[in-house]
Structure formats: structure tokens, C-alpha cells
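Deadline looming. Please check this record:
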Amino acid sequence: MVDRFAVSTKIAQALLLSNAHITLTEIEALPFVEDRKEACAVASRLLRLFAPPYHIEVDQLAYQSDVKLRLTVG
């Protein structure tokens, strides 16, 4: 049995690492993510996955009702 939540989290993690940012809207568009609540759960998991030297900043985007997670090192 495939853990769909784990698959969505791995995809979001890969996108965050490659782009240095991801929004909740982008997470919500991933396979197996059904709604905003599940996108928030994936984002919460991402916040717990990254340890120093990585740091994730969470920004509310003023021009839309979205949240951006930005990955920084150091």
C-alpha cells in the first residue's frame, strides 16, 4: 500500500529543494493533495523535516491569499 501523504510530502520536499520556495497553492496542486487542509498538513510536515543548516521562512503573500515557504541555508 502506498502512503499517499508521504508521496505528496516527498514531491513537495523535492520542489522546495530545487526552487528554494513553494506556496500552499502549489502544494495543493500536487498529486494526492485533495484540499487546502491537506496542503497545510504537507507544509507542516516540511517544517519538521528540515533541520539546520536549513531554515524555512513562512511568508503571507500580500497580493493573494497564499503562503510561501522559503528555504534558506545558514
